[in-house]
Amino acid sequence: MKRRIGIDVGGTNTDAVYLEDTRVVHAVKTPTTSDVTSGVTEALRRLLLAGTPVAVDAVMIGTTHFTNAVVQRRDLTRVAAIRIGLPSGASLEPFIDWPEDLAALVRGEVFMLEGGHEFDGRPIVPLDTAGVRAAARRIRDAGLTAVGVASVFSPLNAACELEAASILREECPDAAVTTSHQLGRIGLLERENATLLNDALVGLARTTTRAFTQALPASRVDAPLNLTPSHGLVMLLSVAAAFLSKLTDALVIDVGGTTTDIGSLRHGFPREANNVVEIGGVRTLFRMPDLLSIGLGGGSLVARSALSVGPRSVGYRLVEEGLVFGGSELTATDIAVAAGLVDLGDQRRVASLPAELVTGAITRIHAMVAEGVDRMKTDAGDEPLIAVGGGCFLVPDRINGISEVIHVEHQAVANAVGAAIAQVSGEIDRIFQDLSRDEAIARARQLAEAQAASAGADPRTLTTVEVEDLPLAYLPGNSLRVRVRVVGEIA
Amino acid sequence: MALRPVSAAEIESLAIGAWILGTGGGGSPYLALLNMRKLYREGVSVSLLDPMDLPDDARVAVVSNMGAPLVGQERLTDPRTIALAVQMMEEYRGCRFDAVMSLEIGGGNSLQPFMAAAVLGLPVVDADCMGRAFPEAQMTSFAIHDLTMYPLTLADVRDNAVVVARAASWKWMERLSRKACVEVGSIASTCKAPRTGKEVKECGILYSTSKAIRLGQTVQSARRLHRDAVQAVIEAEGGQLMFRGKIRDVARRTTEGFLRGTAKLDGLDDFRGAAFELAFQNEFAVGWLDGQPRVMTPDLICVLDSVSGDAIGTETLRYGQRVSVIALPAPPILLTPKGLEHVGPRAFGYDLEFRSVFS
Fold it and tell me: Which residues in B lie closer than 8 A to residue A471 (C-beta atoms)?
C-alpha cells in the first residue's frame, strides 16, 4: 500500500488529504496564508490530528503559485536568453511576442548565435562556441542567475544546447540553466518561451521549496517532498482518472457557480486541446486539456418568463443573493432546491414557485448539460460521465449516450488528491526518416520512457498515454513526425 | 499609380483572412505576422497598389516561401531572405522591380510580399495568382494562361543562391526548385518568373489581398460582437455552410511529398445523424455528405472552428474538434475548362465531374 499526503495551495484555500493508494482517508481545508508555510503547517497539523500517520511514502504539493506568479507579474527572476540558430530566424529574437510588461520584468541579456540543426539532423552551420563563451561571461558579469538556451530543431538533435550548457556551467556555475529540448516539442518560439518562463520562476521555486521543506519537520511529517505546478482542471481530470482505475475513457463535468467545464479522458488522461496555450499572455507549448465551457452553474440566473438559464450568474454571491439563502435572485440552485434535487438553504423560500417554472427550468438545464456532453463525445458508444463541482446536482442521472453518471467523493479537495497522485511524464516529438511507422513509434516510445525515468518516474509504472504520428508534407525520405507521451508514478 | 497605405490593424486582419483562404494549407501566417508587427513598430509602412493602376510595362516580382510548414516553425521566416530572392532576380535580369505580389493569398505566403516590400521599399499589388492555396506551382492563373514559368530565384539563409534559368514545363520547374529547396533544409524564399503590369492585369487574380483583409475583419467584428463568426463569414463572402460537426477520425499519409488524407465528421446541430468526409492533399480537395460528393476543388473548402471562426489546417485537424465546413466561391478563371484541367478534382486524382455548389 502506498501512503501519500497531497496538499494543494490554492488562492483561497489550502487543502490537504491523506491517501492510502487512491482511497481518501482524511481530508482537511484551511485558509491559504500569505507566507504559504503557516497555511501548509496548519493543514498538516489538522491532518495528523485526524489520525494520519507521521511516516508516509511521499508528500506531494501542488500549487497554482507558479502560474499565478506569471499572471500577476510577481516574484519573477530576470533571465538571459541564448538562441542558437543564426543565420536562420534572425528577425524574431527571444521574447518577441511577450506582453511588454512581462518582458520588461523578465528580459535580461539576449544573445543570438550561429548553430542549430536541420530537420534531417545536419547542422545549419557549426555552433559558435566562442560566442557562447563570451555570452556566458557577460551573463556572469551582469549577475544574472538564470539562463534559457534554445537551439533550432533541438528536439531532434540537442548537441548545440548541451554544449552551450556545459560552457555555461564552466563560466557561470551559479546560474540555473534550462535547455529547451528538455521541454520537448517542435516549434522554436513556443519551446523557447516555455524555457524562459521556466527560468523566470527559478527564484520562486527555490523559496517555495524551502518554505515547504521547513513546514514538514515543523509538522513532524517525515517523507520526501515533491512539488508539482498544478492547473485546475488538469488535476481534477487526473483525479477522476484515479477514481476510475478500470474505466479509462470517460467524460468529466465540473459544474461551478457560473460556468460548467466538460472535458474528456482518453486512456486515463485528459484529451488535449490543439490550441496554443497562453500563460500570462505568452504562447507556450504547455499542455492543457480540451475543454468546453458553457454558461451554466449553480449561480446562473433563471428568467421567469422565457425560461432561459444563464449565462448571467450571481457567481460567488450565490450564498447572499440566491432565493433559498434569503436573497431575491432566482438561480439554478433555487430551482434545484425546489425540485428536490438538493437540500440547501431555506426550502420554504422556493415552495411557492410555479411547478411549470420549476420543471421547465430543470428541463432546460438538463438539455444544456446533455448538449454540452454530446459535443465533447467523440465515440458513438456510451461512456460514463464523472460529475464534480459545487453545482453537480444540476447534472441529470440519465443522459443520452452516457452509460452512468458517477459522483466523485471528496470532490471539494479534489486538487489535493490530484497533487497526491501526480505523475511524471516523458514526451518525445521527433521527425523520423526511412523507418516504418511501427519502428518509428517504438523508437519514440523508448526515448520518451527514458526521459520519464530520468525525470523521476518509476519505470515499472510507465504507460503510454498518447501517440500521434504525422506524415510531413514537402519533406523527402518518407518523413514521419512522431509524438509519444508516457507517464508513470514518482519512484 | 494610386497607393493606399495598409495599417497595422489591416495586417492583423489579413493574417486571419489569409489563413481561412488557405483552405487547410499554405501554412499558418503567425510568424510572418510577428515579423510585420515588428517592422510596423519600427516605423515601416507598406502600401497596397490597385492592379488596374499598373502600367502595362511595369515589372512585378511574384514571391513565395517554399518548403515544409513544420520546418518553418523552427527556422523562423525572415523578411531579409524573401527580399534577397527579389534582389537576386533583379541582379539576374538586370532591371529593377516596380512592385511585389503574392503567388498565393492563402496562408503564410499572403504576408511574404509585405515582408519583401517592407525591406525593399516597394508597394504590394492587390492580387495573387491562386485566390486561395494550392500545393503545386502549375496550379496558378498564370499557368492556366500559359505564361512562361522561368526564371526562378531561390535564396537560402546561408550564402547559397540558386537560379533556375529555364524549365521545360511547370512540372519541371516544380521538380528542379523542389530539389534545391530540400537541399537547403526544406525551406527557402523564392521569386517566381517576373510579370509585366499587363500580364498581372490580364492573368492575375485581382483584389485578393483586400478580400483577405475584409474576411479577417468580418471574423474580428463577429468576435467583438459575440456573433457567430462562421455565419458572418458565410454572409459576407456569399459562402455556403456544408456541414457542422465534430471530427471522428483523421488518417494521413505522404506520397510524393504531399500530405494526403481524409477526415471523417459526425454531424451536430442541424446535421445531427449525418456524416461528412473530407479528402485533402495539403489543402482540402473534396467533401462528401453521406457518401455523395457535396463540394470539390476549386471551390474553396474551409474548415473553421465552430466557436471562434479560426481556420483549421490539414496538419492541425484532430480527433474531437468541433468544426464547420464552409464553401466559398472560387475565382472565375479557375472554373473555366482550362482552369479545371489545372485545379479541378481530376488534377488531384479524384474521378469526379466538377460541379460548383454555387452554380
Answer: 252-254, 259
